[in-house]
Amino acid sequence: MDPERERTGRHLKKGRKRRRAANTLVGAAEAMRARWTLEERQPEAKKARLSTILFAENCEVTHDQLCELLKYAVLGKSSVPKPSWCQLFHQNHLNNVVVFVLQGMSQLHFYRFYLEFGFLRKSFRHKFRLPPPSSNFLADIIGLQKKQVTGDLSKMVEGSLPSASSKVSINLQNDPIIQKYGSKKVGLTRCLLTKEEMKTFHFPLQGFPDCENFVPTKCNGSITDNSPLFGLDCEMCLTSKGRELTRISLVAEGGCCVMDELVKPDNKIMDYLTSFSGITKKILNPVTTKLKDVQRHLKALLPPDAVLVGHSLDLDLRALKMIHPYVIDTSLLYVREQGRRFKLKFLAKAILGKDIQCPDRLGHDATEDARTTLELARYFLKYGPRKIAELNLEALASHQELLAAGQELRNTAEIVYQPNTSVLECLDLMGQKLLFLTREAETSELCSARNCQTIKCLSNKEVLEQARVEIPLFPFSIVQFSFEPFSPNLTEEMNKRMRIKWTEMSTVYAGPFSKNCNLRALKRLFKSFGPIRSMTLVLETHQPHLCIQYEVLEAAQLAIESLDGILVEGACIKVQRPVTELTLDCNTLVNELEQDSENRGTIYLSGVSETFKEHLLQQSNLFLGLEAVILPKDLKSGKQKRYCFLKFKTFGSAQRALNILKGKHWKLKGRHALTPRHLHAWLRGLPPESRRPPGVRVIPPPSEQQALQALKVDHPKIAAWRWGRKIGKLYHSLGPGTLCLILLPGTKSTHGSFSGLGLMGIKDEEESITPNMCS
């Protein structure tokens, strides 16, 4: 063989070997990448989890709304409407529900002893305000204040709604409809909601801050008893921004449908709510009609003296983002006891003898519902309040609820839920019992409930010991600790001092500056970190200093971190907080606030424009994990302020977004958030008397000093030290998938009421935010 050809052959063989080896490596790398990708795409085992993106702006959750969540946690979405204020995903993966009640404590106590409540603030990401306590807090959150189904339901006989003509002994004068409207027939104008009633029941009204972008119908004609009625009903879906319109039906007086439109929401749809709306993805896909098209069409259709009729019409108008001054709401027209409301389905059957919203249909028929509300209004006007009162609707509704609950016990395959069903009754339907642990001295309606296992203890320590043993044995537990509250005077003093502390922490001193410094430029500089409440020139020193009080704590902290020790107008300035007995531990407090589980994924930004939200959404691919954009507004003008908060799913996503937004393209100033969202409303309302000149000493009243010296176990501060950790250890002993709520119900005194605080989470929902507990 030719030597040259032989050498060439050897080179070719070596080349083929190298290529095969390279291909093998590439193939292995690709296989590994594919395996990693596959592993990344593998769905994690489903876990129950919570989301609070539906929170109201002030983050207040009513006792009824708490009850909604607890009932949903027991029965699930197939039987109970979803909570209106939060989302509980994969409810069927919940294993237990445990509610800890810290009786005698409030939101004020939590933030007064914030550092002492270390475990609670780090472990529970979801925090919310509670209204001041009612006379029976536990009965409210369990739903016992509503009428209960009593007796042995399994022995209820078959039956249906009793005849309206059946002889029932009733006192018409006590009927709420007679009390409101009298016994004689009334005209249309008497049935209209007054402006005050519309305000009470949260109808959109002109000039209200939350309605600034709402469109008025321009119906401002003179209303008479002959004005035309239009039945209105809307269907909604759940989007990333809350509930949005998907269908509108408008029916004229003769029963003719004059408008029936499907509507494509502006934001991403999270849940079509098909069981209520009947709307599916397939139905909405080809739709191009938008909300603004519907608003324009509706304005053109309605005459100047049009009266809109609907059932819970405030929700429909808010979905439409429209304001209409003349409304009849059939859920309020047919008045019920204790402010409750009859369902439209019930009124249709009891008054008109017709069946609507049948279970064999997919969702509600909006046109049918709109037509039904119109017929109910016409019936009321034709026959008058006395005729309605004689029907004894309350008895009919109670009878129907008894039959429904009795049927459930006979047929466990189908759970029948009624809106006024209590948590106890929900557990009863599931064949389960509630555990209630409390101190001997405490009384509650729970103690006498049929399917409640009550254990009374002599002390909080005994309650804790019993809880460790008993909680694993019950699917639903309420554990109540009772603490001795401060006296009214001490509570009021503590409230003032707490507010002063937040004000002082939001204040900075900066200087020294030259005597001919440019004050306008300095104000612009300090304002770039956030909204300024006041800025004062201090001339007591050799060289001028500035005292700047910010509206938000984040702005003050950002000013300190950005300007302390740098050259400003040729002088090296120091930026610091005032040093008083209330701010001595502020550095520790700021660090702990930043580590608060609620703040971990939230960032604060200053310098945002009115179009910031639009720009943010246009480049949403840069901000993965964004859950909510919180844009505070001026309470007087309703205008958007020049700062905001962005809430992300994880701390890492928040940090990446912060780096981008502080970069050259966005040019914003920002840092991680310090103020939990539910505190914003409280801090915005600081009264003038809560602010004092920095440096003035506040001496704790002798009675508090004596209480601290006595080290009473149930004193609120000592309770925070000891019981926060004890409850933490008990929480760690709970099984995975346990929905846990910590409720500080709030307090009442002669000086006023103090709001409560709620914390909630699901065990093992987010292991990364649960701190290690030391012994």
Automatic annotation (TrEMBL):
The keyword Transferase does not apply. Transmembrane segments: none annotated. It comes from the Eukaryota. Keywords: Exonuclease, Hydrolase, Nuclease, Repeat, RNA-binding. Residues 506-580, 601-671 form the RRM domain. One of its GO terms (molecular function) is exonuclease activity. The keyword DNA-binding does not apply. Pfam families: RNase_T, RRM_1. GO terms for cellular component: nucleus. This is RNA exonuclease 5. It comes from Neomonachus schauinslandi (Hawaiian monk seal). The gene is REXO5.
